[in-house]
Amino acid sequence: MTDCIFCKIAAGDIPSDKVYEDDLVYAFRDINPQAPRHILVIPKTHIPSAAHITAENAYLAGACFGAIATIAQAEGLDGGFRVINNCGTDGGQTVGHLHFHILGGKHLGERLL
Ligand code: AMP
Ligand code: ZN
Predict the structure, then answer these.
(1) Ligand 1 atom 16: the closest Cα is on which residue?
(2) Which of 24, 69, 94, 108 sees the fewest Cβ atoms within 10 Å?
(3) pLDDT per position in the chain (113 positions), as tens?
(4) Residue 75: CB within 6 Å of ligand 1?
């Protein structure tokens, strides 16, 4: 998907503050952090949203979660963290490439909204 900003970030065509990369996954710091630690974890393959996860590509979402555990440990989020996925317009998604937010570095409380 040539006009996707997150595909371009994963390919290194747009600069990012990278925190993790493997064959399937790329992770970088959110440009507008909502917590002391705010990292976006994406599959390198373009998947538009969580609504587009299928039996065939679900391993990419799984790879993201494997990376999330590794990143959280590397970032020192020993006390916990929150993982958020915004899906579609009503879900507040603004970038059309599947991504998981890792938020942490402070006590986030129990309320989601
Ligand atoms: P969402 O609203 O769930 O689609 O989240 C998109 C996130 O991408 C927002 O938190 C933005 O701050 C973040 N974002 C957009 N462009 C960039 C960029 N070039 N580098 C880092 N984060 C970005
Ligand atoms: Zn993309």
Answers:
(1) 31
(2) 94
(3) 579 999 999 999 999 999 999 999 999 999 999 999 999 999 999 999 999 999 999 999 999 999 999 999 999 999 999 999 999 999 999 999 999 999 999 999 999 87
(4) no
